[in-house]
Design goal:
This protein is α/β, with parallel strands linked by helices. It folds into 2 domains: 66-227 and 425-442, Rossmann fold (3-Layer(aba) Sandwich), CATH 3.40.50.11720; 235-421, Glycogen Phosphorylase B (Rossmann fold, 3-Layer(aba) Sandwich). Helix content is 45%, strand content 14%. The strands form 2 sheets. The protein has a 7-stranded parallel beta sheet, sandwiched between helices. Strands 10-11-9-8-12-13-14 form a 7-stranded parallel beta sheet. The longest helix is centred in the C-terminal third of the chain and has 24 residues, at 424-447.
Amino acid sequence: MRSSAARDRKMPKSLPIALPITLRMYRRLASGLVPLAPALIKRRLKQGKEDPARVGERRGLSRDVRPHGPLVWIHGASVGEVLAAAALIARLRDLNLRILLTSGTVTSAAVVAKRFPPDVIHQYVPYDSPRYVARFLDHWKPSLALFIESDLWPNLILAGAARRVPMVLINGRMSPRSFPRWRRMHGTISALLSRFDICLAQSKIDAERFSALGGRDVVTTGNLKLDVPAPPADPGKLERLMAMTRGRPIIVAASTHPGEDEMLIAAHRSLVGFFPQLLTVIVPRHPDRGSSIAGLVMASGLKPALRSREELPMATTDVYVADTMGELGLFYRLSPIVFMGGSLIHHGGQNPIEAIKLGAAIVHGPHVFNFADVYEALDASGGARQADTQEALVKQLGRLLAEPTVRDKMQRAASSVVEQLGGALDRTMVALEPYLLQLRIEMGAANA
């Protein structure tokens, strides 16, 4: 049923005009740096951070043609944000709406190409210069803009608002690190957040932070990542991996960051004395770290294999480095024990939901503020185990390897938590209803 807030919401609202001096200076600086863009692009190309065939998109240029009719533009920073929008995009496509999806990384573009239907148009987000942003908006003329989480580019937001594009922040998150920094720059963040017609926050505390920073219509809808379907896996590749590892105890360390690999390798060395055939699979958050991780494995006296070199885990392989993109679904299906990366260091923890949906028992470090509500509920229910130290990491992983009944109990508890915390997709669709109704009216007029 449509909420009273949704019924009463009107579009577009009057927009604030005055900009704080910080944003005025930012706009001038961004304009002045345009001549340096070729040098920046050249450097990023050498680093593998840009697609040489599509660098024009960074300057607001596109070879693709804008489709006829209403166009919903969805922007997310990288892989996590793009995948968070997957179920929402499916719902919007069911309404016959065309989708423009922008992101800023090569890895996210690869994921879109692999995981999304071909009619979802992907573009690299333009560099945040007024000139490039104007080109982008002139070409695509979006009917509705949805920004995911917290990737807030000032010129992109200000230009969209100036053109009266209805703008919504979805799956909004304000981390405990970002909040005090933005609070010291309240005028700046308020000028940006107030350009959004509505902010849809992941949690109550996120909603409170957005309201305190100037969000003018903030609603708690929950975390879309809880409604993301389990990642796919190639059946043939899975069957081959299972055949190569049959009978071996396996631990998957997912989305690891620098500083964690060493601890996982050390944990393997401690555990292999009790589980002689143990295989540890390390899936780095950034695949280009594969070779350096393999070097750490060899330096510790263990034998690695690298998936990027099309190597398979042989009987003598101790650590399998899965340094490829888009295959987490494969490895989650391979092991019932998953360590979630980004949590032993002060990164904030990676998303455990996909692993849980594929039946994993979760171990994580103490730094999980990116998904604080989820991990808190998991820990309280017994659906996950926290390891604060190297010794605790070994202890928790060892217990799960030794006691299948404990794993099964954790898996059931974790699945229950995910089910209870779900529903963000439905709540997001309710909040978007007035905007989508307007687009359907426009579609009807265009087809009349």
